[in-house]
Amino acid sequence: MHVAVAGNIGSGKTTLTSLLSKHYAWEAHYEDVDDNPYLNDFYQDMQRWSFNLQIYFVNSRFSQIVKIRQSGKKIIQDRTIYEDAFIFAPNLHSMGLMSTRDFENYFALFNLMSSLIEPPDLLIYLRASIPTLVEQIQQRGRKYENNIRLDYLKHLNERYEAWVETYNLGKMLIVNVDNLNFRDKPEDLSSVIDDINAQIHGLF
Q: Containing domain of residue 24, as a range?
């Protein structure tokens, strides 16, 4: 079984992935942030490094999914390959931070990759407002994220909402995180777990 957690930067994906991994004894697959050779450069100069970053992400995510399906284990994944293709890359393109030539090249590669993989059995989308995202980004204190622009987060949120409305690849659970603190409040985590149990009941 493959469960994936989706959401904007700072929405709590990694935290929830870790907590659910412990609760269900699922194997967690995290986003490759610390070893990403492009992230720091990207936030310094988005236009120069956008294509490189997105190619790195789509390759990393594709490799993850292949390993997930080959493992036969119950896996929970932090972020999906679809977010790269339908949210981050088109957002960079529309903001003038990725050329049309690079975007079309990227998307052709994604289409090839996505034709070779299975979507997650359950997608958990963490919906968060801009103030929540900013607060959580500041709390975790990653240096390279200090340069994230508010309009960048806003555009991403708008694309997430549009993507979620049309998502039809499998089951999806939307979790509104503005009034939740599943890291510090067990009752909030329990509430999310109850919702997940209702969704995955038919997956086993």
A: 2-200
